């Protein structure tokens, strides 16, 4: 179990999204309320992504990560509040048994404008995800994309963890989907990934969180998730970080799409 959070809305101080509220992500690291048999505390590091717009209008996700417990890192109070962004994706980690505790294993995983986090576990992850990659490689080859889902791609995972490997697979799915800028690619990619994994490992726990800086997508598969969406902002969080009555708990096996003024919660499978 880990805890993760996504925000889209008016620019905020990036550090605030980690520390805001009586039950902030910072607090959820050592006193989570809803772990669902997935560990006790989230002391194996943390990470935060924010978005920058370049001179050529290219949107890029940047990040800061540390493998130490979030409450030991002074950057949370001294550096992250100096950054402003209209989108934030953050996570605190409880490493799955057998997986390394290192900076490169901490979410968010990023590429171009995308940032990603995984709360859960893929049973027998090497065999399971290799099987998924082989299945997807056949489809990609028919589409002329022989370089996707290959063993070489899997070896590009930043860390030897299920989460880092999921990110490689999701990036390749996003690359095979609709052209850049088409939001519809993300829900389809998440659905394909979750269902291919559950086919092989029905006990898999797959709360995924993805953002391109303009919209949030999330899945629930075993772990908790809540959303709070108004006309001004959208929040997706493993646990509500304050007692605002507008937080809405998401049922298991859902696919959430959220941005300011728009929320959809659909069946995942
Ligand atoms: N399995 C992932 C990891 O080890 C996520 C862990 C979790 O959700 N606790 O990083």
Automatic annotation (TrEMBL):
SUPFAM superfamilies per UniProt: N-terminal nucleophile aminohydrolases (Ntn hydrolases)
GO molecular function: hydrolase activity, acting on carbon-nitrogen (but not peptide) bonds, in linear amides
Record-linked InterPro entries: EgtC, EgtC-like, EgtC_Actinobacteria, Gamma-glu_amide_hydrolase, GATase_2_dom, Ntn_hydrolases_N
EC id: 3.5.1.118
Catalytic activity: gamma-L-glutamyl-hercynylcysteine S-oxide + H2O = S-(hercyn-2-yl)-L-cysteine S-oxide + L-glutamate
Domain Glutamine amidotransferase type-2, chain residue ranges per copy: 2-269
GO BP field: ergothioneine biosynthetic process
Entry superkingdom: Bacteria
Entry keyword set: Glutamine amidotransferase, Hydrolase
Tagged with keyword Zinc: no
Pathway(s) per entry: Amino-acid biosynthesis; ergothioneine biosynthesis
Job of this protein: Catalyzes the hydrolysis of the gamma-glutamyl amide bond of hercynyl-gamma-L-glutamyl-L-cysteine sulfoxide to produce hercynylcysteine sulfoxide, a step in the biosynthesis pathway of ergothioneine.
Name by which UniProt lists this protein: Gamma-glutamyl-hercynylcysteine sulfoxide hydrolase
Source organism (scientific name): Nocardia gamkensis
Gene from which this protein is expressed: egtC
